[in-house]
Amino acid sequence: MYPKISIVTPSFNQGQYIEQTICSVLNQGYPNLEYIIIDGGSTDNTVEIIKKYESKLAYWVSEPDLGQSDAINKGLKYCTGEIFNWINSDDWYEPNIFFEIANVFRSDYKVTSVSGYENHVYSHGFVQVHQGTQLKPTLEQTIEMCEMTQPSTFHRLDVVKSVDALSNQLHYIMDGELWVKILLKYGTRGFRKIHNPVVNFRIHESSKTFSNNVINNFAIERASILSSFQKCVNLPESLINHYISSKFSNSKTFRLNTEWVFDPIIISKRKLRIYFIKNYLTRQFIIGNRIEIKFGLNLLINDMVFDIFFFKNVLKYLKLSFKNG
Fold it and tell me: In terms of pTM, does the model score above 0.90?
């Protein structure tokens, strides 16, 4: 028996594309599918198209909402499957991909997330293959990257629901915030990768990823997520500000209401805090800022971190101090 796959499509005025999206889900031929469409009150022909397929939908509605995150959260409330993902109303799945995804999940109950490749399809016809969600060498680095390529990444539904789904404050990188919450609670051991394209991600003039203004919004939201969980692990405000300003050209952030839940067996607040302090120290040595280097070393002392990294950097600091008088 194949596990039930729950797919949600958030939609708003994408009548020119949504039928291809719907057909790519329904034509999978997958025997245990739950498909839900949450439309934000479209004024084009979207509703007319949805009604053509309503007999094959588990649920659909067209009403005003608070944006994409809100629409997905609405859909999540109706999901009853084992595997979950959402697909936007201008993207479409590759044929027969649900079987491949499901087989990975049912091969091992410990699998929490499965990611494939993506075809990025541009309006002029150019197609670029993207590797999808990638893991960094360590969990700390993966958390810091704060990046999940959502269209090609499926999760166990109970995992998504256990981390309170998506933040309605976020409209561009809500998938990144969801990914960090999953990483903090489940780590990367349950992550699996397939090396075939799963989805076609359409990039066009009206898509979210097109304009420079949107790119700035992505950066602001990513910076806000990063600063939010840095505060949660009790990094000093000055270190957070420096971290954000050095990592992003625009250091603007806003207060995020996310409640970050850590599983200390997976990763502790202390371990993540030390990771950021060490990165901060490394950066200060590059620019030769002795005051900030001393500050960073004192933070490690306060955390009782007396490892090889600490002693090497104490020696580097003494040499730098001697060299500069």
Answer: yes
